[in-house]
Amino acid sequence: MRVARRSRSPWWILAIVVFLGALLGSVIAEALVGYPVLSFLSRDLFYGIDPPFTINARVLTFTIGATIRLNLAIILGIILAVWLFRQLS
């Protein structure tokens, strides 16, 4: 008797789903700013390199910097998107 194996989706599809979930959470957080009861969902935490790191070599200039913005709505959006992805695949 053969056991049916669940096919795994490529990692990049999951990365896109996580990005779209974060985007959805960000939109929800922006929409909830006006409601004082739900404002805790939109309190932001910023992690990253600020100001960006710059190397000037006269001919070329390299600037390296990244910032991650997190809030509870973004995390909930990611969790919801991953859960839906797992249910549909």
Descriptive key words:
43% helix; 4 strands; two-stranded antiparallel ribbon; 89 residues; 18% strand; alpha+beta; 2 helices; flat
Summary, kept brief:
With 89 residues, the chain is of the alpha+beta class. It is 43% helix and 18% strand.
Describe this structure as you would to a colleague.
- With 89 residues, the chain is of the alpha+beta class.
- It has one domain.
- It has two helices and four strands, in the order αββββα.
- It has helices at residues 11-31, 72-88; strands spanning 45-48, 53-56, 61-64, 67-70.
- Strands 1-4 form a two-stranded antiparallel sheet. It has a two-stranded antiparallel ribbon with strand order 2-3.
- The longest helix is centred in the first third of the chain and has 21 residues, at 11-31.
- The protein is flat, with a radius of gyration of 19 Å.
- The model has no long low-confidence stretch (mean pLDDT 87).
List the helices and strands and how they pair.
Blueprint: H1 11-31, E1 45-48, E2 53-56, E3 61-64, E4 67-70, H2 72-88
Antiparallel strand pairs: 1-4, 2-3
Helix pairs in contact: 1-2
Report how far apart the termini are. Answer: 24 Å
Give the mean pLDDT. 87
Share of β-strand residues: 15-25%
How many domains in all?
1
Segments where pLDDT lies below 50 for 5+ residues?
A: none
Series of H and E elements: HEEEEH
Order the strands across the largest sheet as they lie in space: 1-4
Helix segment count?
Answer: 2
Structural class: alpha+beta
The major pleated sheet works out as:
2 strands, antiparallel
Globular, elongated, flat, extended or rod-shaped: what is the shape? flat
What's the total count of β strands? 4
Fraction of residues in helices?
40-55%
